[in-house]
Write a structure and sequence with these properties.
Elements: E1 2-3, E2 10-16, E3 23-28, E4 31-36, E5 53-56, H1 60-73, E6 83-84, H2 90-99, E7 108-109, H3 110-116, H4 123-131, E8 144-145, H5 158-168
Parallel strand pairs: 1-6, 2-5, 7-8
Antiparallel strand pairs: 2-3, 3-4
Helix pairs in contact: 3-4
């Protein structure tokens, strides 16, 4: 998976159905910049993309994402292979890149994630950056849980977080 972090003037949006609700996917010419459970009416555009021209058009990249999401929800794909074009601070991007290192089917606590990033005291900052992840599922922020393994915080709702973790669990129900 590749991170590309430059500005773009156009975002191509298309809704993709999933077992846990419609997803709105946004691609720039550089990669996937948005994957959200929000609809057009309440779509949270990542900082840096809010002035982009929105084009409601399904692209080849949307078709590839939809195929990979279908394979993921069918239990046949554990790691996405798409270019990603994330917009955020250097710290946010560091946190989001670290999410890609959390293995499929496992979880880390916010404290473990902060330690992984080299600063155990940055738990709140890591949690805030995690919550600002603009690319749900593909950048797996759902794999970060409370220190007691409780489900805490997820922009898509805790019911979706639980669904994703159970889907990824090879042992059945984790929660």
């Amino acid at each position: 998976m590749e991170f590309r972090c430059t500005m773009s003037d156009r975002v191509f949006l298309h809704e993709i159905p999933s077992p846990i609700g419609k997803l709105t996917a946004g691609f720039t010419t550089k990669g996937l910049a948005l994957l959200s459970f929000s609809t057009d009416a309440d779509l949270p555009f990542p900082k840096g993309l809010e002035t982009s021209t929105v084009v409601n058009e399904k692209t080849l990249e949307h078709q590839e994402l939809q195929a990979q999401l279908t394979a993921y929800f069918d239990g046949k794909l554990q790691k996405f292979d798409l270019p990603i074009h994330l917009h955020g601070t250097d710290f946010q991007q560091k946190v989001w890149e670290a999410l890609l290192d959390v293995p499929y089917g496992s979880t880390r606590s916010y404290k473990e994630q902060a330690t992984f990033l080299g600063d155990v005291k940055a738990i709140r900052a890591v949690a805030t950056a995690n919550g600002a992840n603009p690319v749900a599922i593909v950048v797996p922020c759902h794999r970060i849980v409370g220190s007691d393994q409780s489900l805490t915080g997820y922009a898509g709702g805790l019911h979706r977080k639980q669904f994703l973790l159970e889907l990824e669990s090879s042992q059945g129900r984790l929660f």
